[in-house]
Amino acid sequence: MPLSPQVVFQIVLLFFVLVTIHEWGHFYFAKRAGILVREFAIGFGPKLVSFVRGETRYTLRLLPIGGFVRMAGEDPEIVHVQPGQTIAVSTAEGVVDRIYLDQLDQRTGVVQGTVDRIDLERELVVKLDVDGEKMTFPVHRQALMIAKGKETQIAPWDRQFGSKTVGQRAMSIFAGPLMNFILAFLLFVTVMFLAGMPVNVKIDRVEPDSPAQKAGLQAGDVITRVNGQTIGSDPTELTGLIRGSADKAMQWTVLRGGQETQIEVTPELKENVPLVGVRLTADKRATKVGEAIQGGWANMVEATRQILNGFKSLVLGHFTLDDLGGPVRIVEVTGEHASAGLPQYTFWAAIMSLYLGIFNLLPFPALDGSRLVFLAFEWVRGRPVDPGRESMVHFVGFAMLMLLMIAVTYNDILRLIKS
User: Last residue of a domain, which of 256, 285, 314?
Assistant: First the structure.
């Protein structure tokens, strides 16, 4: 079924908000720790929109399958300057503010020479051989290196990821999932306000030729008691009584037109499930703040339990490829929830935010959980793991995740074609 422009917008908005809030968590706590954040990106692949504000480049990329915050020193720095290399520097009040690595003949107002010694991390100094004369310059903490038309801000050691305490680094990583958990809770609470609180259980529809119709139940009947047990506003009480009364007469007390009526109903087995043939609804009132918080938390706890059970099934191998959903399936389901109304859409957004937070904490290479495991290992042994080896582990994990995503996406497309 084709999606309306409004539903398409809601789908895009959902993914944009979930990824942005996750990456903002990394970004905010990295900045608080004093780490230089080079890039804040939504999506992967080629850049669609890119601009620089302050020390950070913000980019929107083509593939909407996640995002990243690139912190200085988290991965090996790309641009290096070696002794013996010819460079040019520009200075402001005797301090180097720009280091040029190419197109040196086209630079004006610069000092050009061969690097004798350079330290852009701790001492912040560069010593050049300029026509046989040794010249030493201090380097500004925010100096830029320019090569191939790109500017890269230097990262002194105290601005790099690795210079911070284990606690600061762990917080900058954990903050991404944490923001998803906070957003999920706020959305679950919002759902409680949007949906309202039921004040009774009443019949919305009576199925034709059903036990309910034969007994005389009608749409609009408010169910007050069943077999002498008060129903109140919880439909699970009623459904539990029905399931325990297969082929047994039940005494229903309903409120109709302001008066109570006694009706005898006998559930019938349908596919081994006792049913009476009614669809239930409820009159509702505005939700109080305390009720919203309590209900939102309860929904979040239950959703967490179900998500963890799903991951448990994956680990134990109790699944098939059809049980997994890639981006195509997620978009399809999100469209269904968006079409169902604002409360259902908000509830699904809460589920997705919670899922994203939990998924990223899994100890799988390339995910936040794996990076936290490396930090825990560093804390125990007293020294960090070799950055090159850790980067390789994360690269392999990322490649495996991409292969899995391709496989499930291919399966989703085949399923759509068959259906």
Answer: 285
